[in-house]
């Protein structure tokens, strides 16, 4: 189960389309079709563009929701102060398994995204455009779109534009990771917090936002703030792109005006009439109970007031026939495996939190629940990027949203429902978590319970109440191979061994290979 979503799922619209205009005509809008559907777009001075973004209350649609006008002005002011050309970056690294809206735009309406990015680049005087992607389909679509516009990374060009391809990892979608990779480094957060508006690609002030944000900017620039504001809510005008998955009959990307009841959105996707819970905002988002979800509307303010989050626009209901804590555990384990391995709160804290949630599900009692809460509190606001914070918030929301199920697991024998794997996850193992072909084994005849091994490789070994490791052997992923070898070297009792995993070795032939003709097995 936990089947991954396709790159481009079904796309539907409520009301009049804006971002998805023309999707009923062709599968992908090339430049000619794009201009027929949307028309030309005139350049706009920087301050006028900022006022437009402010007038339509445009916020980043990648999850953080930062005001775009404020970001645009910050980049322009930094570039003027330093006397350097800024850079524009489109973040299309949509690697969360529950999100596909940016991927749909890059595949089906790439020129609408480029319209917004080029409009911003012209307004602030940028001469470099970078489009970050992680999928074969989005890379091919964006390279084709740049070629259709005659844009390239050629020296001397008025605007140098290129596609930056990164691996599919949750952390590669973090803004600092994309900037680092665009400079030739690894696609991982750098471990220090520097605002992109001050120093981004090549050290230059960088305007970075996700694909939907630039597409929304292009729509607003074409139709104007007044017409844009006629759709949706007064304080959150326009449309919203949502990705519907989980316990639905038809996973889809849906364009809806803000203010549409969430229950109507769920009905369109074929969700259960009364879902047990609805995860809003994706895997860094928050759970709503079934009743609360039916009272919410699609808007940032409404979802936050109900205890949820709009985030990156992912909506995932689950039905009454599955264990919500078990479903969340699978996600927590995936989030832990997506760690960049660069800071303790992420590399050590997230696996510990996933194990803590597993202990709660397995009847660990109030002690296990309190230990889980302590771990999540320790993880938050201490990481090198936002991944630990978002993952910890997801676990905290899980244990708060399902009190009856939590009580059944903590105080009794569990809720009695199976885990059906309805929440989508990537099918392949993330980079760094693939098996190394080795296992870490404990020799009980030598172990004296010093506990150093659990300090060095807590993701593989942990101590029981008696102070000894709780497992005799553990498979070692590649990301932990170096630490496992270190644990072996530092064990005072020499009780650890790093062995080849028999399951990973090629099978031996049943018979010895035949000798060449004329040779004898007898010793001469």
From TrEMBL:
GO MF annotation list: 4 iron, 4 sulfur cluster binding; metal ion binding; NADH dehydrogenase activity
SUPFAM superfamilies given in the database record: 4Fe-4S ferredoxins (SSF54862), Nqo1 FMN-binding domain-like (SSF142019), Nqo1 middle domain-like (SSF142984), Nqo1C-terminal domain-like (SSF140490)
Flavoprotein among keywords: yes
Listed Pro residues bias regions: 504-516
Ranges for domain NADH-ubiquinone oxidoreductase 51kDa subunit iron-sulphur binding: 325-369
Positions of transmembrane segments: none
Gene Ontology BP, a term: cellular respiration
UniProt cross-references to PANTHER family, sorted A to Z: NADH DEHYDROGENASE [UBIQUINONE] FLAVOPROTEIN 1, MITOCHONDRIAL (PTHR11780:SF10), NADH-UBIQUINONE OXIDOREDUCTASE FLAVOPROTEIN 1 NDUFV1 (PTHR11780)
Family affiliation: Belongs to the complex I 51 kDa subunit family.
Protein name, UniProt field: Ferredoxin
Origin species: Streptomyces xanthii
Lineage: Bacteria, Bacillati, Actinomycetota, Actinomycetes, Kitasatosporales
């Amino acid at each position: 189960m936990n089947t991954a979503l396709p790159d481009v799922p079904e796309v539907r619209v409520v009301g009049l389309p804006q971002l998805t205009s023309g999707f009923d005509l062709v599968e992908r809008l090339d430049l000619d079709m794009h201009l027929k559907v949307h028309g030309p777009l005139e350049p706009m001075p920087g301050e006028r563009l900022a006022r437009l973004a402010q007038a339509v209350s445009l916020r980043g649609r990648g999850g953080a929701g930062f005001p775009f006008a404020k970001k645009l002005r910050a980049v322009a002011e930094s570039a003027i102060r330093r006397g350097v050309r800024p850079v524009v970056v489109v973040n299309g690294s949509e690697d969360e398994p529950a999100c596909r809206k940016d991927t749909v735009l890059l595949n089906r309406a790439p020129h609408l995204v480029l319209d917004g990015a080029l409009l911003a680049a012209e307004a602030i005087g940028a001469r470099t455009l970078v489009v970050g992607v992680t999928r074969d389909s989005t890379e091919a679509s964006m390279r084709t779109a740049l070629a259709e516009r005659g844009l390239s990374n050629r020296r001397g060009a008025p605007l140098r534009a290129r596609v930056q391809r990164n691996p599919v990892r949750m952390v590669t979608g973090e803004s600092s990771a994309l900037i680092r990779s665009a400079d030739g480094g690894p696609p991982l957060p750098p471990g220090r917090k520097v605002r992109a508006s001050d120093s981004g690609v090549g050290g230059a002030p960088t305007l970075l936002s996700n694909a939907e944000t630039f597409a929304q900017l292009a729509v607003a620039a074409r139709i104007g703030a007044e017409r844009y504001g006629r759709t949706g809510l007064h304080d959150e005008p326009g449309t919203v792109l949502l990705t519907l998955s989980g316990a639905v009959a038809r996973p889809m990307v849906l364009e809806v005006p803000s203010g549409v009841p969430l229950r109507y959105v769920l009905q369109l996707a074929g969700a259960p009439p009364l879902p047990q819970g609805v995860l809003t905002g994706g895997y860094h988002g928050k759970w709503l109970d079934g009743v609360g979800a039916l009272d919410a509307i699609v808007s940032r303010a409404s979802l936050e007031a109900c205890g949820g989050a709009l985030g990156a626009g992912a909506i995932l209901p689950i039905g009454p026939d599955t264990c919500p804590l078990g479903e969340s555990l699978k996600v927590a384990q995936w989030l832990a495996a997506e760690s960049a391995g660069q800071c303790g709160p992420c590399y050590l804290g997230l696996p510990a939190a996933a194990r803590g949630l597993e202990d709660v599900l397995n009847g660990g009692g109030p002690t296990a629940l309190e230990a889980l809460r302590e771990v999540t509190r320790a993880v938050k606001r201490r990481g090198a990027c936002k991944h630990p914070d978002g993952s910890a918030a997801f676990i905290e929301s899980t244990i708060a949203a399902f009190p009856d199920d939590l009580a059944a697991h903590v105080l009794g024998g569990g809720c009695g429902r199976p885990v059906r794997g309805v929440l989508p996850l990537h099918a392949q193992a993330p980079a760094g978590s693939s098996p190394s072909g080795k296992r870490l084994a404990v020799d009980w005849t030598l172990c004296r319970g010093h506990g150093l091994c659990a300090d060095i490789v807590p993701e593989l070994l942990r101590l029981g109440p008696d102070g000894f490791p709780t497992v005799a052997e553990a498979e070692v992923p590649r990301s932990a191979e170096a630490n496992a070898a270190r644990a072996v070297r530092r064990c005072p009792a020499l009780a650890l061994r790093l062995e080849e995993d028999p399951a990973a070795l090629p099978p031996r032939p049943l018979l010895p290979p035949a000798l060449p003709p004329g040779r004898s097995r007898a010793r001469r």
